[in-house]
Amino acid sequence: MSVLVAGSVALDDLKTPFGERRMVLGGSAVHASVAASFFAGVELVGTAGKDFPQAHADFLSSRGIGLSGLEIKEGRTFHWEGFYEYDMNTAHTVKTDLNVLSGFDPVLSPAHKKSTHIFLANLDPEVQLRIIDQIESPLLIAADTMNYWIENKGPALKKMISRTDIMLLNEMEARQLSEEPNLIKAAAVILGMGCRYVIIKKGEHGALLFSKGLNFSAPSFPQEQLTDPTGAGDSFAGGFIGYLSAVGLSGEDHLKKAVVIGSVMASFNVEDFSLERMKTLTRDEIISRYEHIQRCVHFGGLENNLFTGKE
Amino acid sequence: MSVLVAGSVALDDLKTPFGERRMVLGGSAVHASVAASFFAGVELVGTAGKDFPQAHADFLSSRGIGLSGLEIKEGRTFHWEGFYEYDMNTAHTVKTDLNVLSGFDPVLSPAHKKSTHIFLANLDPEVQLRIIDQIESPLLIAADTMNYWIENKGPALKKMISRTDIMLLNEMEARQLSEEPNLIKAAAVILGMGCRYVIIKKGEHGALLFSKGLNFSAPSFPQEQLTDPTGAGDSFAGGFIGYLSAVGLSGEDHLKKAVVIGSVMASFNVEDFSLERMKTLTRDEIISRYEHIQRCVHFGGLENNLFTGKE
């Protein structure tokens, strides 16, 4: 089984307390595809301009990521410029140049239409819907969004969610979309929109997985080396869908493990700018960090006769 | 073994999105003592004014909380007035009247000096130190503090921490005390001040337990019914120290379970104003919530042959 990832391909200008980088490889589809590529074959669907460096395409190909769905257009690649303050929790956008991403509305190839595992990174929900329409027999569709679409394309977004198996949002998006400050209630509201699972990504506080009757909480890896948070959410999603494609199962036990794998992949991605850390990442490092998180959360059962009887 | 809790006894005016209460029972020592009383005999050390209602004293006694260390003085009981916005994460103080708490500097009775498990709730760190000086052979001392002491009594606070086994702080206090925004690094800085364990309470995001070499993460109970957050941290601490006193052990396995019990007790306390929820709480409810958190965090090991080999 292979993974189809649709989203942005970007050249980013980034500034964090640990340095600056100009015109580095980024974009939601890139971060998600690279994270997924450790577990599965990946097909990337996106667009870039003529300025997109061949070295970046070569890097993606070297990771087994199919680029037949990456349309190279006249013009410049989508460009995001942003910075992070000292606490690194919030990305501040300086400038967004859509460039060739403006009007992006992909027509899938016959092979891509047969994809089983699909991750729709942040895009106009109407475009996400048209991609879903083209998939012939999906096993699992996961999707992301952002505050802009919640504010400006609410009805389309809700329709898209109703046709998605797993909706991924960050904490703020979940609160905004549901109009409910309590995350447990927020998840219930979003499940009510018709997806089967909701994942709320909480950055340094981990991630929550909900379905009707399921409530799973994964911590983040205890991260000391946070250099550049850009792409953390997409790396999470890529690891998540890549793992599920690799195991070919999507019961709750596997969804839980997929959430932890997502956290692990995000934790590596933030250790260096752009995709730099992913270039040296090994399977042993992934396994080791997964097992570390397992140890971080394990605790035993309660003793008998613990209570004073004052109740 | 029994627990000694020293801290404030208060009459609170509270306002949350779910209602208002005037002059209700509160205070750090009260919340901590009540939570601990489910697991252990508790001795409360504090002070109240002549206006302190007998019904409150009777309630504490009914929970097996010894009040021989509660000094009733001429004057009014410590009074806190505060409110919570819709998100409930931050307490906004309207007014603090120290009243009889001003100059509180307890002299322990011979029996109290023999206490084994001590929780020093938020107090002037110089007073916390003088209490520690009076304990003859403590097995476990846990302490809390607040931003005011971090800002105004740093040296005394650090000395107190060096004589404490377990330091409890919330997220902001940990960052402020350590001058380090990354919580993992913040915990290391605070451990460097000389305590053996640091617990960072993160409210809805759970709690972290650190020692040199240990990193444990507990989620909070997935709470839908959050009515009044006042006393959550002290209920956590009370459940934590009460449990450890009950089992009489303080290895890392038990410290982890104690953190989860702390989360459980806090989760009940916030379900109603003041101590109301604790009045009806049963051991079965505590056990059930503990087991719920166990299920929330459990996930299995990774499969073999998971990786594409692209690394």
Number of H/I helices of chain A: 12
User: What would CATH call the homologous superfamily of chain A?
Assistant: Ribokinase
The H/E string of chain A reads EEEHEHEEEHEHEHHEHHEEEHHHH
Q: What class do helices, strands and sheet pairing of chain A give? A: alpha/beta
Mean pLDDT of chain A: 95
- Major beta sheet, strand line-up of chain A: 5-4-1-8-9-10-11-12-13
- Say what the CATH topology of chain A is: UDP-N-acetylmuramoyl-L-alanine:D-glutamate ligase
| CATH class (first level) name of chain A | Alpha Beta
User: Which residues of chain A sit in consecutive blocks of at least 5 with pLDDT less than 50?
Assistant: none
- The assembly state of the depicted protein chains is homodimer
Characterize the biggest β-sheet of chain A.
Answer: 9 strands, mixed
Q: Your description of this structure?
A:
The radius of gyration of chain A is 19 Å and the shape is globular. Chain A has twelve helices and 13 strands. With 311 residues, chain A is α/β, with parallel strands linked by helices. In chain A, the strands form two sheets. A nine-stranded mixed beta sheet of chain A has the order 5-4-1-8-9-10-11-12-13, sandwiched between helices. The first copy, chain A, has a single domain, classed as UDP-N-acetylmuramoyl-L-alanine:D-glutamate ligase, CATH 3.40.1190. In chain A, strand 2 and strand 3 form a beta hairpin. The mean pLDDT of chain A is 95. At the A-B interface, helix 8, strand 13, helix 9, helix 10 and helix 12 of A face helix 8, strand 13, helix 9, helix 10 and helix 12 of B.
